[in-house]
Amino acid sequence: MTGTYLGMPAFPDAAREAVHDTTLRANLRHATHTIRDKRARAVGELEDWDRLRAAGKAVKDHTLRHLDRYLVQLEEAVTARGGTVHWAADAEEANRIVTELVLATGERQVVKVKSMATQEIGLNEALEAAGIAAYETDLAELIVQLGHDRPSHILVPAIHRNRGEIRDIFQAEMGRWGRPAPDGLADTPAALAEAARLHLREKFLRAKVAVSGANFMVAETGTMVVFESEGNGRMCLTLPETLISVVGIEKVVPTFRDLEIFLQTLPRSSTAERMNPYTTMWTGTTDGDGPSAFHLVLLDNGRTDTLADEVGRQALRCIRCSACLNVCPVYERAGGHAYGSVYPGPIGAILSPQLRGTGSEIDASLPYASTLCGACYEVCPVAIDIPEVLVHLRERVVQGGPATREGIRVRIRPARGHAAERAAMRAARWTLDHPCAVRAGERLLSRARRFRPRRLPGAGRAWTDSRELPELPAESFRDWWARERGERR
């Protein structure tokens, strides 16, 4: 499986190739428009949606401010109920912990619940290197795995595939992983779902070890919460003897009462449903009910560094609903793979550069993968101001060098190709600091109105290849203002 994003090109290069794929664009346009229209209707049913949104933001902000306290409380609660907690500073440590836990059971196969955290750290590849086969059980993740592909959407990882492509993948690959697809498989949703059900059922019944993530962790009780729509996750969470959950440290909420907010906002924002079809909760272990061994791996992997940035930390409020992807005009045209991360779309454009740093071309380019239209902020159920963070990260990329945030010095590698932009920004700063220079420039441009080009020269040529420069008004705003007020300029 091609699961790693290492070595991906910068976003503009990857997006340039993606926008010429007409099948991809048609798949994305149909899927994102359908999902966002349904979401708008589901959210519109609630008169108190704005208050729920504000409450979710407040809970997440409070938790992040006191994350150290709630994580310790969570560890104590999980341990008291028979679970074991492991702390992983980075992807390498998390992969080592999970691999050792699986090997200790004597098993060489695991089933997995859909988990973005395990994709983030490349767990499947780490397990494979240790001789352990990991089988995805979420339908969309199964399609991605069988297709030797990468996820391209948070909620619907195989959104870039249509039904015909999925049928072809099932027919070609299912037999290599287990039960083959039925002969003459049709491309109807019912037929494809039945083929997947039969293929996965034998995996569920044989598996002794399962790996999951979690949507939320409740600090006061040590409860893990998984939202899903198919029931495959519940099979993974209840049938195996050993359950290992890898969860980002930002997923904790203080109390069970706080969870009630997200039980309303997450389903409506993601699948446009009033209530999630399958919400599975478990607290430690219970004799004769579910797995007999439970391990929780708490993953940092750049999250505490993100927490130190007073602007960027709001990305950690994300509850992975994918609403921002479905309204983003850039994502709709470029698709998820162009972002070079398990977290695509607007949220990925602010989360990935903070978790991974901006040392690579792809991460330095992600803050620019946006029109700053603000649609992502409007639909976010926890009110993450993604445009604000994008501008903030652009500043860090352009400036380069050390950036100070709350007393912490973080070295940011400057992206290549930004020397001209830095020079232009310095020139603009000097000009705007000198009102006389601004007025002189305005007069000069006003007299040169007749020489307005139809296309910009140099680097601006690519911009005007697909756009027309706006017509210049006969009078500038400052001149109009001065004339209306009878002032002299």
| Biggest pleated sheet | 6 strands, parallel
What spatial form do the alpha-carbon principal axes imply? globular
What's the assembly state of these chains?
single chain
Low-pLDDT runs of 5+ residues are 401-415
**Helix content estimate:** 40-55%
The chain-level structural class is alpha/beta
**How many angstroms separate the termini?**
67 Å
Q: How much of the polypeptide forms β-strand, as a percent range?
A: 5-15%
Radius of gyration: 25 Å
Mean pLDDT: 90
Strand order of the largest sheet: 1-10-7-4-2-3
Task: Please count the beta strands (DSSP E, at least 2 residues each).
Answer: 12
Discrete helix count: 23
Question: Explain this structure to me?
Answer:
This protein is α/β, with parallel strands linked by helices. The protein is 50% helix and 12% strand. The chain has 23 helices and twelve strands. The strands form three sheets. Strands 1-10-7-4-2-3 form a six-stranded parallel β-sheet, with helices on both faces. Strands 8-5-6-9 form a four-stranded mixed β-sheet, sandwiched between helices. Strands 11-12 form a two-stranded antiparallel ribbon. The longest helix has 23 residues, at 22-44. The relative contact order is 0.12. Residues 401-415 have low confidence and may be disordered.
Question: What tags apply to this protein structure?
Answer:
12 strands, 23 helices, four-stranded mixed beta sheet, alpha/beta
